[in-house]
Amino acid sequence: MKKFLSMAVALVMVLSLTCVAFADVSVDVSGIDTASSWDTYGASYEDDSMVISLDDMNAIVEALSEDGSQLVYTITNTAGWFQVGFNADTAAYSNSGDPDGESGYVAYTVEADGDNQKVTVDGKAVYDLITASDWYQLICGGEVLLNVTVVSAGSETAAVEAEEAEAAEETEEASEEAAEAAEETTEAAAEETTTSPATGVALALVPMAIAGIAVVGSKRR
User: Fold this and answer.
1) What does the alpha-carbon distance between residue 80 and residue 28 come to, in Å, rounded to a whole number?
2) DSSP secondary-structure letter at 22?
3) Which residues contact 29 (CB under 8 A, 6 or more apart)?
4) pLDDT over 70 at 134, yes or no
5) Rounded to two decimals, what is the model's pTM?
6) Residue 3 predicted with pLDDT over 90
């Protein structure tokens, strides 16, 4: 069992290294210092005014194509509202007044990140929206966009599987060590049980031997 778990851990680690499609993508976009109603950070077309290069934008979009991917926007946390995401033929951005996406925006979750906040959305859902359009722009309003990260489901799953396999291996080793210790304790107890009666029998024969010697001595007299 231990050998099997070791092989599984090694296989997961090798696959996580070879599957480059599962690599996370993170792009710093903190080049815009002040937010307007709509700041444009990158686009599907070449534009020197964009903070994100076309190569970086393509890397982000490619990573979004993975099923289960998560798109994480790191934005400032100074105003009472934000709109962040992709503007396209169909709106692919999130609005702070519509976290569930019931008003036609992209649903999101938000959490504090120091002085900033992280807005997380379904990456594949965004990918389907923007690739169905002829163009798209990465935009943010109300707050300043600082970072865009795509967390791949594949890389996250591989890491979890590796951790689980390693934990299982450690548990198996601990179980084997406990079993070996229990076996040694059992063997020691068995030896003690076997030795005690033999010693008792030997001691019980001592009076008989003394009595026999006494009889022999009395006969000689």
Assistant:
1) 23
2) G
3) 41, 42, 51, 52, 138, 145, 146, 147, 148
4) yes
5) 0.62
6) no
